[in-house]
Amino acid sequence: MLAENYFLCMAAPLAVALLFVKGGARRFCTFFLAGLTMCLLSAYVGSFLVSVTGYSVDDAAVYITPISEELMKMMPLLFYYLVFEPEDKLLLSAAAAVGAGFATFENSYYLLSIGSAALDYVLIRGLAVGVMHTICSMAVPMVLILFHDEKHMNGVLMTGMTAVVVTYHGLYNLLVSVPGISRVLGYGLPLCTVVGILVLVRVRKKILAQQL
């Protein structure tokens, strides 16, 4: 019940806040809470799959956890996209909130489970995991937005990008599971990815501006 207790402590204030906020704040709180919930549920799914497959904890982190976590994070976003058909910016903000909520619960549970840790380690791991989960949550919506006019390709695009995201997540888990330079590369991977995305977005904006 340890994970459930942490979840209730974190989710209860957000649930209360939903009664008093509106607009964008309510939407962010809702999807942040959805991220917390998906993190807890993915732990149940992952534990079940480990018991069925017989994988060790280390192997499960590479072969099972990325699949279960990314699929669970996608569920509230897929529901939001298919049922409400939100604007592009609202879909992206929802994806960011789900990723942030997921990472918040995962980091909190991890740090409380292992006890105290060095501040530099906490900051590096917290930032790396937070960025990784947020990037992975936003990847599929970004592809759908990029190919907004190709609705008939949505299924293929979602399947392909999900495969990429799962592979990326698995690579991160594999790198950080090995001490030394491998772990350093793993923690640096999400940060380098963000920098690359920001550069690409900036270049794309310049190209579009020149075309106009």
Write the layout of secondary structure elements.
Elements: H1 2-17, H2 23-53, H3 57-63, H4 65-84, H5 88-114, H6 119-146, H7 154-176, H8 181-211
Walkthrough of the structure:
The chain has helices spanning 2-17, 23-53, 57-63, 65-84, 88-114, 119-146, 154-176, 181-211. By secondary structure, the chain is mainly alpha-helical. The chain has one domain (2-211). Helix 1 packs antiparallel against helix 2 (23-53), helix 4 packs antiparallel against helix 5 (88-114) and helix 5 (88-114) runs antiparallel to helix 6 (119-146). The radius of gyration is 18 Å and the shape is globular.
Intertermini distance: 58 Å
The structure class reads: mainly alpha
Tally of discrete structural domains: 1
Number of helices: 8
Strand content: under 5%
- Topology, number of strands: 0
Cα-based radius of gyration, to the nearest Å: 18 Å
Tell me the overall shape: globular
> SSE order in H/E notation?
HHHHHHHH
Helicity range:
over 70%
Query: Major β-sheet, in short?
Result: none
Outline the low-pLDDT stretches.
Answer: none
Mean pLDDT: 86
Note the main attributes of this structure:
212 residues, mainly alpha, globular, single chain
Short description:
The protein has 212 residues and is an all-alpha fold. It contains eight helices and no strands.
